[in-house]
Write a structure and sequence with these properties.
Layout lengths: L3 H17 L18 H5 L23 H5 L6 E7 L4 H10 L4 H10 L9 E4 L4 H7 L3 H13 L8 E3 L11 H8 L3 E3 L7 E9 L3 H12 L4 E9 L8
Parallel strand pairs: 1-6, 2-5, 5-6
Antiparallel strand pairs: 3-4
Helix pairs in contact: 5-7
Amino acid sequence: MTRILPQALKHLLRRCQQSLLPGSCLLCGGDAGAALLCLPCQGELPALPAARCPQCGEATALGERCGACLLEAPHFARVVARWPYEFPVDRLVHALKYRHQTAIAHWLGEQMAAELPDGEHWLVPMPLHRERLRDRGFNQALEIARVLARRRRLPLIAKGLRRLRPTAPQADLDQRQRQRNVRGAFACDIDLAGRSVILVDDVMTTGASVNECARVLRQCGAEEVTVAVAARALKARSVV
């Protein structure tokens, strides 16, 4: 606790400092007024392809279910994303996570709110391991989920899902290695019997981590798990 507290204070100071700065676009530096991005930059953000797998969100030729989902169905029902994970969306995510531009989390949540399915759902953020949380000072998935909870008036279960151990980066691993890397890395402490859960994160890359989380959530009784992310890495469009 003593090591986390200074990081939390630094996080608060950064947020106060950001609120006093004049509004300049985070991408081009131009005048954005009170917004995070100027209108031209916002209008040039990349769009997801219309034809995507209805379960994992990967690009497909005709919007059919992809081969990977047919071969081994994920534990989540669907993925909803706002953008593909490519330039310049990747710059925004990196600025949030590694330069502590926490206003981006609020903006991402505002942009994602309309993408969530209708109905009664519990919001569960992707957890960080305590070591990563200590280093970063905040969990970007939780910050995004707070905005979604307010905008969509949904209950937020901030501490229901825990990361038990740190995991190696997934990008350089094959599919089986990715599954082994995250197996047993998460635990759930609450009864989700009959609940529909939305698992919130900033980016979905390989999908192994969110799939393992969905598996754990369903073991705790979740009837259905939807994955909601700001950006989805697509094999056909970007390399992550």
